[in-house]
Amino acid sequence: MDIMLYTFPGLINEFDIFFNNYDIEELIVCPSEKITDLKPKEERICRFCGLNYSQTTFKKEAHIISAHLGNKYLVSDFECDKCNKFFGDNYENDLAAFLGMSRTILGVKNRDNKIPTFKSPGKMLMARREEFYGIKEGIKVSREESTKGIFNINVNSGKTEIKYQKQPYTPIKVYKALLKIALSIIPGKYVADYRHAFEYLVSNNDKLSDLAKVLHYELPYNCKVENPICFLFRKLDSTNRTITHVFALYFQNNIFEFPIPLYKVDLDNNLYYGKSYSMPLCPPIFTEPVAEATYFRTIIDLSSNEPVRGEIETITFSMDPDQMNKLKAYNPTTGEITDTTLNPDDIIGIYFASQDSKASFPKS
């Protein structure tokens, strides 16, 4: 693929190591309009269950990348209605719960073209799209007045934290939701040789749970993508003891990356059961130069079949402390503006809007 690629300056060595071993085989970008070149339904075969048009139905739109991630038009012609329902009912809701409030904060629209409302367990915190004095595109995050410790605002530094509880999710279902996307973007010529991966996707097999580990990057917001992007990397040298394919999903300011498991050639070479192998992974890649930036990188273990309940996530952002010390209080009932000192404990809601938004307060 003849495109110029870049990464953060501090990751150039990792970048070079990876691309000395792998190349881009597929680059999938969610389109901005409907796909028109799908196979006629009578010619379709489901790559997940193997049934054809005479054996099952293909009436529903099957999203290659979950609609929970903002994908509206990237759909397939190789997923039947039964499999589509199975993945939606069993995996995709867990993926949405795992992502937490970020889909709302980032304004990710669902298949109904609406930004989802987020409610934490017990509705202690809620985030939703809401108009605010003429601003129509903002997101309001509010807490119950009786709750404490959700908004932590340091007036002197400008650092603000929102600590909230995610909805429950099952880690292995999150992994399988991501694996389903990976197995959806592989070219058709590989489907037969990934038979064991497809079987694992729809099974309750716990023997391979140690494969369910994902490299996660959280990037600065100015590095986010508007629509999901998928990369499929293939190793250059078939004799190298590395997994053949690596998958990466770019979602807003997040990257989820992992080797696609259970390829026939890899199994034949005992890459899973016996001999050791190395696994270079790709750092964040961009199509134009980027400056050094602060990012977070971690390996997420998604192998557990036990639901995760009560997980606390923190969203952190900063505001100019000089501006915070110049804040004024506005009384929407009386229209009165005062120099009341900000007491962080009094904050029950925070409104997020684009930098060029302007509120139209009533004149007093």
Task: Describe it.
This protein has 7 helices and 17 strands. The longest helix has 19 residues, at 81-99. The chain has 2 domains: 9-99 and 169-301, no CATH class; 117-165 and 327-352, no CATH class. The radius of gyration is 23 Å and the shape is globular. It is of the alpha+beta class and 364 residues long. Helix content is 17%, strand content 22%. It starts with 11 loop residues before the first helix and ends in a 12-residue tail after the last strand. The strands form 5 sheets. It has a 6-stranded antiparallel beta sheet with strand order 1-10-11-12-9-13, with helices on one face. A 4-stranded antiparallel beta sheet has the order 4-5-6-17. A 3-stranded antiparallel beta sheet has the order 7-8-14, with no helix packed on it.
List the main descriptive attributes of the protein structure presented here.
single chain; 364 residues; 2 domains; 6-stranded antiparallel beta sheet; 4-stranded antiparallel beta sheet; 22% strand
Distance between the termini: 60 Å
Uncertain regions: pLDDT < 50 for 5+ in a row? none
Order of helices and strands: HEEEHHEEEEEHHEEEEHEEHEEE
Largest sheet: 6 strands, antiparallel
Q: What is the number of domains?
A: 2
Structural class designation: alpha+beta
Give a count of the beta strands, DSSP E runs of length 2 or more: 17
Going across the biggest sheet, name each strand in turn. Answer: 1-10-11-12-9-13
The percentage helix is: 10-25%
Mean pLDDT, to the nearest integer, reads 90
Strand content: 15-25%
Radius of gyration: 23 Å
